[in-house]
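Think of the structure tokens as a kind of shorthand, similar to the way a musician reads notation: each symbol stands for something richer, in this case the local conformation of the backbone. In the example below we present two proteins back to back. Begin with the first one, reading the sequence and then the tokens, and try to describe in your own words what changes along the chain.
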Amino acid sequence: MCHAECRGGTSRLYPGRLRLALWRSCLANVPGLAGMTQLLADWLVVADPLQGADAILVLSGHVERLVAGYELYRWGYAPRLLVANQGVGRCEFNGQVYPACHSAPRILHQLGVPESALIVLREARSTYEEACAAATWMRRRNWRRLILVSSPYHMRRAVLTVRKQLSASDRKLIARPAPQSWFSDSQPHDAPWLRTVAHEYLGLGYYWLRGRV
């Protein structure tokens, strides 16, 4: 009976926010722990030198990815964009505010990207499915270079997943994390930062167990 009461008391005394506060306190006071966490976060970020490619794959998710992919297209690094048919949340481009119901393809169309330069991965609902769809397009069109755009924290898992799907050694993947990202600009070890780092390592573990990376 006592054990049951203790367990119930613990769940009430240590809700999610308090557990996170305790973890942040450990980061601040345990020597080396904050630095180790920062190293784990840094390892997630992958970036290659920019060069021209056959296409730009913009992974679905935070609007910062769509911004980065559109800018690369506008600057002429590739003649076409590959995007999933998913919403990106409320966002703003060039002074124009788009509601959350707008999908990535619709926003790109309104920005002036023509139909001929936009390939919509209609069935893709995850990083793995987007990687499979992009690899199919590359084989079908005999493309050799692909620029991969995602958020900095998501790049490691994205690169490993897409590279495994490309498989052929003569196809080059160029990793480009979004340069203007909340993750890079946020205070290290705050709540969203910690949750995101933990989520990505869990995602990497899951993808590894499923043979996707």
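Once you have a description of the first chain, move to the second and do the same.
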Amino acid sequence: MTHPRSAFGAPPQGGAAGGPAEPDPRRPLDASAAPAVTVSAEQFLAMGREVLAKQPFSVLLGAELASLEPGRCELQVPITERLTQHHGFAHGGVVSYIADNALTYAGGTALRVPVVTSEYKINYLRPAIGERLVARAHADHVGKTQAVCRCEVFVLREGVEKLCAIAQGTIARLPGTDDAGGWAS
């Protein structure tokens, strides 16, 4: 999946002893590991929403970018009858879409160049029965040309979130792209 111009500067570095850091998904990535984003958090989120609005399939599904920071994002999709399968829960393709797009936002904002999904794997844990899907993704390891990211997909039902899928993916720099796509100064 192509996500145009998700670019914000240099990637964060690995953890202790040269290995990858194990980020806490509730905390932001180490801001000292990468140059500061040169726009406000509100502008950063608005830029991410502009990218989402240019994706016709995302618009068709009603996807909403709830939060975005370098290496992290939260994407949501309201579950409507049109997005369910014959048993009445969200279609696996919709769950897969939200995981893929969240992974790519996390990887793209960590790599800070235009990116595509190179590969991903998803485990469906339970049927997504509820009002809304919520995907939270973060970059676990960021190199020069790719980022490995993880995502948890929850279903929101009557105010309670339940984990319904887990995904991991590799997000790759688009070949021939060296610029920051206008998102970094």
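Compare your description with these statements about the second chain. Residues 28 and 72 are 8 Å apart (CA to CA).
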